[in-house]
């Protein structure tokens, strides 16, 4: 399905830094709960991600990632997810996070 440039511009992808990571035993599938700092304009957002196959909690702290920040909030088990972390999804739900090559300012828009 082809989309227009105008449609693409509606998706607000931003760079954020993971500041908190914890186990999420209430989730249906293995996942972590995370708090991500998107800078002054967007602020900090909660979310969860099924990335336990490839990442340990300690490896995620301080890591910059790419996330969509303008989706509606979504209830996932006992938390309200406020953004969608982006990653490449391989076989058996093996997810590799998208991130900038160099450290950049939190909140920068991806486009």
From TrEMBL:
<feature type="domain" description="TRNA-binding">
    <location>
        <begin position="7"/>
        <end position="111"/>
    </location>
</feature>
<dbReference type="InterPro" id="IPR051270">
    <property type="entry name" value="Tyrosine-tRNA_ligase_regulator"/>
</dbReference>
<dbReference type="InterPro" id="IPR002547">
    <property type="entry name" value="tRNA-bd_dom"/>
</dbReference>
<dbReference type="GO" id="GO:0000049">
    <property type="term" value="F:tRNA binding"/>
</dbReference>
<keyword id="KW-0694">RNA-binding</keyword>
<keyword id="KW-0820">tRNA-binding</keyword>
<dbReference type="InterPro" id="IPR012340">
    <property type="entry name" value="NA-bd_OB-fold"/>
</dbReference>
<dbReference type="InterPro" id="IPR008231">
    <property type="entry name" value="CsaA"/>
</dbReference>
<dbReference type="Pfam" id="PF01588">
    <property type="entry name" value="tRNA_bind"/>
</dbReference>
<protein>
    <submittedName>
        <fullName>tRNA-binding protein</fullName>
    </submittedName>
</protein>
């Amino acid at each position: 399905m082809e989309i227009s440039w105008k449609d693409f511009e509606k998706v607000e992808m931003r760079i954020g830094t993971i500041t908190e990571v914890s186990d999420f035993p209430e989730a249906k599938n293995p996942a972590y709960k995370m708090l991500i700092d998107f800078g002054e304009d967007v602020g900090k957002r909660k979310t969860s991600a099924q990335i336990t196959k490839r990442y340990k909690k300690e490896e995620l702290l301080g890591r910059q990632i790419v996330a969509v920040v303008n989706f509606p909030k979504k209830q996932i088990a006992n938390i309200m997810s406020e953004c969608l972390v982006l990653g490449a999804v391989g076989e058996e739900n093996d997810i590799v996070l998208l991130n900038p090559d160099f450290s950049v300012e939190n909140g920068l828009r991806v486009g």
